[in-house]
Amino acid sequence: MSKITVIGAGSVGATIANDLMIQGIATEIVMVDINQEKSFGEAMDIYQGAPFCSPTMVRSGDYAAAADSDIVIITSGVPRKAGQSRLELAQTNVDILKEIAAQIVPVAPKAVYILVSNPVDILTYVFHKISGLPENQIIGSGTILDTSRLQSELARRFFISPKNVHAHVYGEHGDSSFVPWSLVHIANNHIDSYRDNSPDRDRIQWNRDYQEVEEYVKTSGAQVIKAKGATFYAVAMSVCHICKCLQSNAGTALTVSTMMHGEYGVSDVCLSTLVLVDRTGVRGKILNHLTDGEVDQLRASANKLKSVIQQLNI
Questions:
Q1: Over 118-133, what HEC string results?
Q2: Which of 138-142, 152-156, 308-312 has the lowest mean pLDDT?
Q3: Radius of gyration over alpha carbons of the chain, in Å?
Q4: How confident is the model at residue 87 (pLDDT cuts 50, 70, 90)?
Q5: How many CA atoms lie within 13 A of 21 on its CB side?
Q6: Is residue 58 helix, strand or coil?
Q7: Contact call for residues 266 and 260 (beta carbons, < 8 A)
Q8: Helices (DSSP H) in 28-119: which residue ranges?
Q9: pLDDT for position 222
Q10: Candidates 173, 190, 241, 289; catalytic one
Q11: CB–CB of 33/9 below 8 Å?
Q12: Which carries the bigger pLDDT value, residue 313 or residue 290?
């Protein structure tokens, strides 16, 4: 049994709810939105496909309907526009989150909360401060989507399954994110030596194109927004993956946003590093051996987020 509440019935929230049902992740899905007619329509549309999926009840409701949820996914907020920084959204979406938290936490105090709205690291931090919940119950989707973009691009370049690409994006889900290239491996080879050991060596073109790949990861979301108006398919799949990991006793390593307590010299801010996630929520962080330059990049990302937090009315 798994009851999952999705707050926000926009493109991201509705796609998450639809994917949850298709993948059989939840036995009950509750959709909550300030626009009750919209959430009702989305829930009805999704549920009418139930005969083709695992048995799942999908319904809309108010916050009381979310009582005893195992997972709560928060997607509400003003969406990012083309050319707009995620951080420019901060105060507006913080105010929305404060209204949501006051209503959802009392009815679902034991749920694991997944923050998806942007700027996700800022909102995850604010939720820590206002919810009163244990830290293990709070997860920001963070750079899990950036990591997926990175892995899929490297898989394309190296002619290999993304499942054999071990690469992650650290830091802010935004412009100050970075790839710790010292940790990137493809099929047990460091990325810079893989080509020489691969049967595809004659067609792989890799000249340590770190900056080019990172630029792709950082700008591909904006490219999608420019082309179709919004991003929601890949982020929905990434959030559903987090939900599946939360249903397993085996810890899964994910780059999600969590509160930092001195790791890599970073404290009192939420950003993404590798974290173990299981049924308890956040089991703990995996501490990797970053280079001095990579540690500096993580601290710079943390400082950028802190500079925004200091300007907020929390």
A1: CCHHHHHHHHHHHHCC
A2: 308-312
A3: 19
A4: low
A5: 28
A6: strand
A7: yes
A8: 36-47, 90-104
A9: 87
A10: 173
A11: yes
A12: 290
- In the residue annotation, 173 being an active-site residue is answered as yes
**Cα–Cα distance, 58 to 243 (Å, whole number):** 16
How wide is the angle at C-alpha 150 spanned by C-alphas 149 and 152, nearest 5°?
65
Residue 9, CA distances (Å) to 33, 66, 157 in order: 6, 14, 36
**Which run of H or E residues covers position 30?**
strand 28-32
- Sheet of 185-186, strand order: 165-166, 185-186, 189-190
DSSP-derived 3-state class of residue 112? strand
C-alpha to C-alpha distance for 164 and 160, rounded to whole angstroms: 7
**DSSP category for residue 176:** T
The answer, yes or no, to whether the previous bond of 119 is cis (omega within 30 of 0) is yes
In terms of C-beta density within 10 A (0-12 exposed, 13-18 middle, 19 or more buried), how is residue 310 classed?
Answer: exposed
pLDDT at 82 over 80: no
Whole-prediction pTM: 0.94
Over residues 185-202, the pLDDT tens digits come to 999 999 999 999 999 999
Helical (H) or strand (E) element with 147: helix 144-158
DSSP 241-283: HHHHHHT-SS-EEEEEEEEEESGGG-EEEEEEEEEEEETTEEE
- No. of H helices and E strands in the chain? 9, 12
pLDDT in tens, 293-303: 999 999 999 99
Burial 236-258 (b: 16+ CB within 10 A, else e): bbbbbbbbebbeeeebeebbbbb
What span, in angstroms and rounded, lies between the C-alpha atoms of 40 and 17?
12
282 or 230: which leads in pLDDT:
282
Query: Is residue 295 within 8 Å of residue 289, measured between CB atoms?
Result: no
What phi, psi does 89 have (nearest 5°)?
Answer: -80, -10
CA 251, CA 232: separation in Å to the nearest integer?
A: 26
